[in-house]
Specification:
binds nicotinamide-adenine-dinucleotide, 7 strands, NAD, lipid metabolism, Rossmann fold, alpha/beta, single chain, Enoyl-ACP_Rdtase_NADH, enoyl-[acyl-carrier-protein] reductase (NADH) activity, 255 residues, NAD(P)-bd_dom_sf
Length: 255
């Protein structure tokens, strides 16, 4: 087996369509020698159908990251397919509609709590659930959208992402002793199902299309996926708690 991830065993969450960032990660990972196990949320038959479009059909395990039974049983279910894990990809985000699109001042705590549970706390939950299968050299990688700034319509999802960025640094601190890294990829806007659920998302699309120094494709998930692969590989052995921007350089600009 050859490729950047030759022989690595990965757990990839977050596939729901073939536009999902996670789908690109799974596809590229297989093309680069990895064995991939997927998790799916809710519409499992849909995820299973999408999984068949990968170069190698991948098994799908049901996982709602807010479900403690699913989390407790995850390691055993993964063990049915692989004998350990070298990498875990968290590609999960959700916020109720009240939390997005300009409703920042009115969103009720219950909705904000859901956004933070699914999009922030779950990063830790997933890592801990997978930990019994991991060993030194392992990596956890997640996806963020630059949370150092307040964006027009991102609202509480932005707050959840700020929490995710912090959670990744804390995970890096707590898992460092076990030789496990935690890093995030900060991607520019991509037309996925999650993105389409954000009212006013086209504002991001226009801004990136006009201003990203390297230019930006709204439909090419591969650059973000490539960065995930690099962070999962052995080529960032001393990097943890880091955020790698894959946004055409947009974050480097001033107002
Ligand atoms: N699309 C973008 O513009 C963009 C930019 C930067 C970061 N991201 C991040 O990338 C990640 C992947 O999103 P995407 O854009 O590929 O969209 P997507 O809609 O394809 O993926 C989101 C995934 O989250 C899963 N999910 C939601 N609630 C869940 C739960 N309770 N348990 C388990 N899974 C759950 C969905 O099933 C789906 O597979 C998210 O963290 C998102 O915030 C997206």
């Amino acid at each position: 087996m050859s490729g950047l991830l030759a022989g690595k065993r990965l757990l990839v969450t977050g596939v729901i369509t073939d536009a999902s960032i996670a789908f690109s990660v799974a596809k590229l990972a297989q093309e680069n020698g990895a064995q991939v196990v997927l998790t799916g949320f809710g519409r499992l038959s849909l995820v299973e159908r999408i999984a068949k479009r990968l170069p190698e059909p991948a098994p799908v395990i049901e996982l709602d990251v807010t479900n403690t039974e699913h989390l407790a049983g995850l390691a055993d279910k993964v063990r049915e397919h692989v004998d350990g894990l070298d990498g875990v990809v968290h590609s999960i985000g959700f916020a109720p509609q009240s939390c997005l699109g300009g409703g920042f001042l009115d969103a009720p705590w219950e909705d904000v709590a859901t956004a933070v549970h699914v999009s922030t706390y779950s990063y830790k939950s997933l890592a801990v659930a997978a930990l019994p299968l991991m060993s030194p050299g392992g990596a956890v990688v997640g996806l963020t959208f630059d949370a150092t700034k307040a964006w027009p319509v991102y609202d509480w999802m932005g707050v959840a992402k700020a929490g995710l960025e912090s959670a990744s640094r804390y995970l890096a601190m707590h898992l460092g002793k076990q030789g496990i890294r935690s890093n995030l990829v900060s991607a520019g806007p991509l037309r996925t199902m999650a993105a389409k659920s954000i009212p006013g998302f086209e504002q991001f699309e226009d801004a990136w299309t006009e201003r990203a120094p390297l230019g930006w494709s709204l439909t090419d998930q591969e650059p973000a996926a490539r960065a995930c692969l690099a962070l999962l590989s052995d080529w960032f052995p001393a990097t943890t708690g880091e955020i790698v921007h894959v946004d055409g350089g947009y974050h480097a600009l001033g107002a």
